[in-house]
Amino acid sequence: MTERHRHKQQVRKAFDQAADSYDRAAAVQREVCHRLAALAAATPPSGSVSRILDAGCGTGFGLDLITHAHPDAHIVALDFAPAMLARLRQNYPVATVSLLCADLEALPLADESLDAVWSSLALQWCDPALALAQIARALRPGGVAWIATLGPATLWELREAFARVDEASHVIRFHPAAAWIAAAEEAGLSLVAKDLDPAWALASDLRGLLRDIKAIGAHSVGEERRRKPLGRAAWRTLQDAYEAHRRPDGLLPATYDLILLALRKPETTHHD
Hints:
Elements: H1 3-18, H2 22-25, H3 27-42, E1 51-55, H4 61-69, E2 74-79, H5 82-91, E3 97-101, E4 114-120, H6 128-138, E5 139-150, H7 156-162, H8 177-186, E6 190-195, E7 199-203, H9 206-215, H10 232-242, E8 252-256, E9 258-264
Parallel strand pairs: 1-2, 1-4, 2-3, 4-5
Antiparallel strand pairs: 5-9, 6-9, 7-8
């Protein structure tokens, strides 16, 4: 098994396990979807919109926002985790949504078959060049991809606190915005708009914060070895280190280094 394949299997397992708890803990994900919807409203595709891909749909929260903006469009809801799609079907038993279990880096969709792509907090698990090349291929000329992904400062407070405990990599480092924009341009997509304002998960204590991060499947994926549970002394060290980040309102924050992008596939130009 290649390292890339192993990583993908771990991502799928993490989100399959999170399917039942995801909706209860996904406050940040809901906020991000609303921000992405605002970006999408400001950057529509040219022409009519009849087919939209929700790339990494999870349990389907974004579908309400997509269908509200484009009530006549058929939506293809794609996710890598079968359990997420099963939960989505319970939430959205409607004919205008087709479910597809597939890899964002190998979309089983025809060339130029989509008017728009919506992807909220899924592409950070992918290789930017591979995923954006697939999105560009599947978009029709004039189509737009609305993307919310995560940058390298995501969960920096947790990374800083764990550094007091051991030298293990407890938090994944995601690609910066510049890497996504460069990959988009290489794939033939033009940057229309971007928003780099962060979002925060909040909880009254560290256990609650970590529980919510794990419940949405966003805990560390990709470790080659399984870490042992923290002992009492290590846990106290972690708690004490994280206390430095407590806000004036009494809540502990976890930063999501949010990257919102609107990417357009240029119209085909005809020469005489």
